[in-house]
Specification:
249 residues, alpha/beta, two-stranded parallel ribbon, 7 strands
Length: 249
């Protein structure tokens, strides 16, 4: 009987051991699932950071091209042209307003970003960092806004930028841009979002008085910032605006 009792005790001990193993495995599985869920969030964050990096890299390419046109090709700001085949009709004649033609640019193309005699950039009609449904009328140059703390108070800068629809996903991209630049997230500034979706650079800067309004006059973190992203809460439905100053006046 004593031997049988020992066997029963041993079996109970084994059962308890197996139960403890099962509890430990369940805990490990729960932890793995939790971490996997968190990992998905991290993946999204990383994708946003990659998009932000690509946007900033492209803006830097535009800035380098601007410097080449001004310093090497001896172009004036008013002669720079972002003209290209924006409407996809096979020609960049400027027959469509979206082509962003500048009639004051030299005819030899030396002051054009997307011309072999100019900066020689390859035109990207649909940047990979933006979804078609989010991209509002394309990236562009314009001279309608200034940046607080840069240049003269009522002189607009030459700016490269674009406008995104006001969606939660685009807010995350905007925030990722600002994180990369060590700027605060969730910035809002009161501006006409049309400057970044309708008006194209034609060689003429905006009216000095009483406009342009200044980027950074509401979102003070953008004061003196050459690059940034913000929610344009003003006229025309708003949207998330990325801007990059090419030349200060």
């Amino acid at each position: 009987m004593q031997a049988i009792h020992k066997i029963i005790q041993k079996q109970h001990g084994n059962a308890l051991f197996l139960i403890l193993i099962a509890v430990a495995l369940f805990a490990a599985l729960s932890y793995a699932i939790t971490q996997s869920g968190r990992g998905g969030g991290n993946v999204t964050r990383e994708i946003n950071m990659l998009n932000a990096s690509e946007i900033l890299q492209y803006a830097s390419t535009i800035k380098q091209a601007t410097d080449k046109l001004l310093l090497i090709n001896n172009c004036q700001l008013t002669e720079l042209s972002f003209q290209a085949d924006w409407n996809g009709d096979g020609t960049d004649s400027g027959g469509n307003s979206a082509d962003q033609a500048n009639t004051t640019t030299p005819s030899d193309g030396r002051c054009r970003y997307f011309h072999e005699n100019g900066a020689g950039l390859s035109f990207i009609s649909k940047p990979s960092f933006l979804e078609d449904t989010d991209f509002m009328r394309g990236y562009r140059l314009h001279g309608n806004l200034g940046v607080d703390g840069l240049g003269e108070q009522f002189e607009p800068e030459l700016i490269f930028g674009f406008r995104l629809h006001p969606t939660a996903a685009n807010l995350e991209i905007c925030n990722a841009i600002n994180r990369t630049l060590d700027l605060p997230e969730n910035l809002s500034d009161t501006h006409n979002a049309q400057f970044f979706s309708y008006f194209s650079w034609g060689g003429t800067f905006g009216d000095a008085t009483p406009h342009p309004s200044r980027v950074g006059d509401t979102a003070t973190a953008l004061s003196e910032a050459y690059t940034g992203c913000f929610n344009a809460v003003g006229y025309d439905g708003g949207g998330y605006i990325f801007y990059h100053v090419l030349a200060v006046r």
